[in-house]
Amino acid sequence: MDSDRNRFRNPFGRPSMSNTGAAFSVLPSQKTFKGILAGGITGGIEICITFPTEYVKTQLQLDEKSGKPRYNGIVDVVRQTVRHHGISGLYRGLSVLLYGSIPKSAVRFGTFEALKKRNLDEKGNLPPSSRLLCGLGAGVMEAIFAVTPMETVKVKFINDQTGPNPKYRGFFHGVSEIVREQGLRGTYQGVTATIMKQGSNQAIRFFVMESLKDWYRGGDPNKKVNKLVVGMFGAFAGAASVFGNTPIDVVKTRMQGLEAHKYKNTLDCVLKIARQEGFIAFYKGTIPRLSRVCLDVAITFMIYDSFMDLFNRFWKTD
Questions:
Q1: Is 0.90 surpassed by the pTM of this model?
Q2: Cβ–Cβ < 8 Å for 160, 258
């Protein structure tokens, strides 16, 4: 029992020898593979629905108060974008997120399922501390393997459109230009801020989501949660993450924009924003981000749970 408790206590620690076989079978297990597959499908569907709100949020965060603001708010971003680029302008950079959202969501949910399986207690429930750590692990993994390069290219694409002569003609042309001018490092700008953002994002979201599900089920891990209830829980988890880490998101966006050369590092970016624009600048884009994230997380968990239920019905696991 002691070895079991030690294994449950640390999702990243080395398992005891008596559990070596079970622990090392986690990553290639069918449960984990289901999470990867369901997560990938979920990511592609979700981003097609919610991208315009991401576009508006990014434009507001790039619009520095210390310079000459281009926009007067959410409605003005939409109005100017549609006037100059048409409705399709609100989807500039979608291809980048679409290419990236599938592996991002796959890595996130696959990692979470793998870590979750290692940390279930004797009743099959995930302890509160493990919910936080498993979510953190999922966020860090997606930041490193998917989110940082995807977000960097997306921000550069959107930022490029604000200039008089956009130079990126599409996803592959844009990526090739970024790599040619800045090397592969150019796609990993703001990696520290991104790890901080995604780690805190998923730690908050999975903690809130798993806690609400556990409360709803009354501690019975086999009780089904209605999909509309899952959606409501997801929206609440999304809102919690927005208020918890929007300052990190603002810093990440600035570090990945075309003006990133103005900042020596993440700390320098934080200090310059605080000194030149004030504390309120750390919450720029909160409202459009809130609308996007609440919808995003609600849809994501509803779709993910639906696919996992479908897979579990026709695909028996180990």
A1: no
A2: yes
